[in-house]
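Page 42, continued from yesterday. The earlier attempt failed because a stray header line got pasted into the input along with the sequence. Redoing it now with the clean sequence only.
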Amino acid sequence: MNSHTSSSKQNWTQGGSQLLQQHCRACGHVWYFFRPFCPACGEESPEPTQANANGVVCATTLVHRAPDERFKALVPYRLVLVDMQDGMRVMGHAEASLQIGDQVHCEIHTLAGQPLPFFTRTDHEA
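This time it went through. Structure tokens are written below.
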């Protein structure tokens, strides 16, 4: 087991409330899906780091058929793919009005009883 899965930083995919990425101390590579090794160089024990929670919507869909009973109460709901400022791509739930090209911010919300990324539009106009 990776020593970082039980650390104080816990990714939403592990039941936590943070959007984390992993960083290889050996080669500097950064990635999103947690692994016990670096996918670029194979170095073990990568370091979890806080991800930049801002990005741009690159794809969106409105879901009308829930995948299971837990999500039926949410239908219809919007799913988006977001290119994050750190270079990773994250899929998550979103405000219904989001469109491709919108600037967004990610927080972890509890939906259907589990932590999931949720994106909201950010206002970059002054």
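Notes: Confidence is low (pLDDT under 50) at residues 1-8.
Reminder to self: strip header lines before submitting.
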